[in-house]
Amino acid sequence: MQAHPLRLHPGQDLRDALEQTVRQLGATAAFVVQGIGSLSVAQLRFAGIEQPTELRADLEILTLAGSVAPGGAHLHMSVSDAQGRVFGGHVARGCIVRTTVEILLALLPDHEFSREPDPQTGFMELHIRNATQRK
């Protein structure tokens, strides 16, 4: 495992920036260990709901974690607003950095992540291959 700290800047799309960073690093598998910072817009898909909900406010990221592959990410995040209310769910595109986001990525060079249909869940789920399984 290789640690890769990352700072995002105002105006960046959180999910796009993470996916782009993983591609630029040539990584085939990574996990977001943790992330903190602030957003001006959060797009979160709540459990059981198909479309994301947009939150527009000064938001603090309390937690950010998930997997990132060259083909995309599966991220969960919790944020709080100025009244201390907490919201959490799947991270969709459109989460815009307000001042900064600081992230610790764990790169897994001996693994390859992909998303593949899972007949049991009916969703695209994480598929993990180690280096000896690569084609």
UniProtKB/TrEMBL annotation:
Domain of life: Bacteria
Domain PPC stretches: 1-129
Database matches in Gene3D superfamilies: Hypothetical protein, similar to alpha- acetolactate decarboxylase, domain 2 (3.30.1330.80)
Keyword Cell division: no
Pfam family for this entry, one: PCC
Keywords: DNA-binding
InterPro entries linked: PPC_dom
GO molecular function, one term: DNA binding
Entry-linked PANTHER family: DNA-BINDING PROTEIN (PTHR34988:SF1), PROTEIN, PUTATIVE-RELATED (PTHR34988)
Protein name from the UniProt record: DNA-binding protein
Organism whose genome encodes this protein: Paraburkholderia azotifigens
